[in-house]
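queue> holo job accepted (zinc ion)
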Amino acid sequence: MRVALIHISQETNDFHPVLTTLADYAAFGIHEGPAILEKARGRAAIDGWIDAIAASGLPVEWVPIVWGVAGAGGRITTEARQFFLDAIRRNLAEAGPLDALAVHLHGACSAVGVDDVEGEQLALIRAMRGADIPLVLSLDHHANVTKLMVDCADAIVAHRTQPHDPYDTGHVAGELMARVLRGEVKPVMAYRKLPLITHQEQFLTAAGPMKDWFEQARAMEADPRVLQVSPCPMQPWLDVAEGGWATIVTTNNDLALANRLADGSADFAWARRHVFMEQTAVPIDEAVRMADAEKSGVVVLSDTGDTVFGGTAGDSNLILESILRQGISGRALVPLISPQNVATLVAAGEGTTVTVELGGTAATDFFTPLPVTGTVRKIAPGRITVPSFTRPNIDQGTTVIFEAGPVTIVLTERRGTAGNVPETYRLFGIEPADFQMAVLKTASNFQYFAPITSRVIRVDTTGPGQSDVKSLPWKRTPRPFFPLDAIEER
Ligand SMILES: [Zn+2]
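queue> job finished
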């Protein structure tokens, strides 16, 4: 049996104005053909796919097509969009006979002038290989699941947890594919769209309404007729024509059951929409004072408006400004991603004391540069290996350690781990556990810092990743939708 393998992933933040280019994919490597099986291995979705199929014992020969991953960011360029369409077209044309297609996409990727990049990719695959060949699609559950995506897939499997475990997602999809290839099951899908977008603060699946919604899905799967239930709470910064949450139920050839359960899953989320909107973030100055007053560190200050894994630039200086203005008794660790600032500080040189305009240049609707006087302590290359990170080999570009009063600012050229992983600092001789507070550029991915964290405080910062979804400048999302409009019926 020959199964094609495709893995393309980017998450778009429409309120971040900097476009995602082919170079952003190239930073993580772009692979075509057999190189994918040699170079793109780790603990990602395709590894789960491959291991599950191997465990099934089926004589599957993988036919790798294309692999490309960029971090979250602004819309992708036309060049990047066309590149992946061409790569699919070229490699699928040469792939020879196929028995199935294993496809992993993010699901929330938009390009300049095209809202549904993944729908377009799937439609191309179908146009080339027909409607009959089985296609199982794995997705990030923050996907915007469109009608076209559902029409093009036989089954959809989305992440089961936040923080995500992409390997698990691929493994579940691979197991389902094995059952399809054995002729054991015939998947059929029902999908419901919800006029709903909520902020990120209730997105963790370990607690609160999201835990309840995902547990409902797992309970539905206890029925052997149910192959997969995938709640998809779309990430809240995608401003597209079909935007909104969705849920997908795949059963073994029982469409009536799939429809009934899809209604049940959609109703469950809709009934809890006000609970999903409960916010925990506190104003910036108050958050800094709370962190300083804690008996011991490290207090994580989550910069919710500048969540790099949610597609922002990582150059917000709002928490830094508050720390420097208010003063603190402990020490603070602040990451900042800015190629311009790195260039300026490299030119100044190690050991010099200078005043620079820090950050605030990427999303100028939200931020302005902040003049800061400090000392350049260290300049070092930022090529690092972090085994615990989803992509272990990371090039953050040149890294500068800049000290300003009680604050150690770590500036990088590229986004990499966005300072959300302690090893990033340790590689430069900085121990995050020695700090009273550390700013993290994420609103969800606290797991890497968890072993040294005394408390997490979500800070209500503005920015392209902000929790206040109501005040974002929505243009394309279909109206009415909750919470922008007061709607009671979905
Ligand atoms: Zn996600």
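queue> The mean pLDDT is 95.
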